[in-house]
Amino acid sequence: MSGTDADTEFAFSAHERDRLSNTSPADVRPAGSLSFSRNVFVPLTTACRYTCTYCTYFDPPGEATLMTREAVRDVLETGAAAGCTEALFTFGDTPDDRYTEIHAQLDEWGYDSIHDYLYSMCELALDVGLLPHSNPGDLTYDQMASLAEVNASMGVMLETTADVDAHSGPRKKTPAQRLGTIRAAGEVGIPFTTGILVGIGEDWTDRADSLLSIRELHEEYDHIQEVIVQPVSENERWGGPTPDLDTLRRVVAMARSALPEEISVQVPPNLAPVREVLDCGVDDLGGVSPVTADHINPEYAWPALRELEAIAEYGGVPLEERLPTHAHYIEAGWLSPRIQRAVDADDDAGERYRAVLSGRP
Ligand code: SF4
Predict the structure, then answer these.
(1) Cα 134 to the chain's mean position, in Å?
(2) Strand-pair partners of 281
(3) Which of 50, 168, 296 to mutate to test the pocket of ligand 1 (most atoms within 8 A of CB)?
(4) Contact call for residues 334 and 191 (beta carbons, < 8 A)
(5) Can you tell me the distance from the alpha carbon of 88 to that of 43, in angstroms, rounded to the nearest whole number?
(6) How many CA within 13 A on the CB side of residue 28?
(7) What is the pTM for the complete model shown?
């Protein structure tokens, strides 16, 4: 078959995959600028149905937390006051039946599911003056369509199309589900961020397959705004090796080579030596927060904005702030009516969004 280990069939050829697998940093050019988003991180719950072996985010049943509305509001208000534009909502993947306390709490608060609660918290973010970007794991078309009403953009990491042991165990995350979620976002028509995780057992062919699969979904729906290239990190749950610099440089170059120019290639500066890969085509540094830690990888604090400026200076390119939705999607009218109203609003938040769109001083 051409394509991936997943159920979805892709049309790219073996020749194309081989060409991409052999791409090197010498085959791509550095970007002319670096973008970033000013965000606050809202880890709505640490419950997750999966147990990926490299992940320190999830807590088991009985230990997982669920942020209260008041706690969420506190973070959002602090972020808005600090000049942020994005509320980055995340949890792992829909908590399963083992998380009885989480479900009981949601029920007590009057929500049918974590997705209903997320919808309500996105509305709260809009009220406070931030644009929601949610990463709630795998979603059905209907779940995606509902959440798209109150999100400026959404995302899920593809990670890899390969069937790797790091995803194995009693509750296995599958590439087919991830690809289905990315396709659902395309069908709904919401700007979407995805990415690959490097070093979890995939090989060079798998990396090429993953990138080409993302490209094909974008060719069908035009909806991928950003692809993150993230190396797996050393932590207390991950016993495997982490990718060396040469590997990371090659994979970033592969991403730049595989994807059309309108898709940003992002490398997270808190998880990768971004200065050393700038010449491989990176053009986005992701979100930086003045007020919250990166709860997905709590032991790696986000660098301050000054650090992003230093990275851009090192690369000799300008650093440009962006909204969670990349500007060309806004210009092309992709925002939902609710989000468009927030961007157009004659209030402080609307002014902040429009200032960023026009190149905030
Ligand atoms: S990586 Fe994501 S899906 Fe896997 S266990 Fe962690 S939070 Fe859950």
Answers:
(1) 8
(2) none
(3) 50
(4) yes
(5) 8
(6) 29
(7) 0.94
CA 341–ligand 1 middle distance (angstroms): 33
Q: Which residue has the tokens 């069937």?
A: 163
Residue nearest (by alpha carbon) to ligand 1 atom 3: 92
* Three-class secondary structure of residue 195 per DSSP: strand
Handedness of CA 63, 67, 71, 72 (dihedral sign): positive
**The pLDDT of residue 109 is above 50:** yes
Q: What is the DSSP string of 148-192?
A: HTT-SEEE---B-SS--GGG-SSS---HHHHHHHHHHHHHHT--E
pLDDT at residue 254, rounded to an integer: 98
Mean pLDDT, residues 68-73:
97
Q: Tokens 């909204």 — which residue? A: 323
Give the strand pairing for 192-198 and 153-155. Answer: parallel
Q: Which of 44, 55, 59 to mutate to test the pocket of ligand 1 (most atoms within 8 A of CB)?
A: 55
Q: Are strands 131-135 and 224-231 parallel, antiparallel or unpaired?
A: unpaired
SS3 content of the chain, % helix, strand, coil (to 5): 40, 15, 45
Quick count: other Cβ atoms within 10 Å of Cβ 146? 17
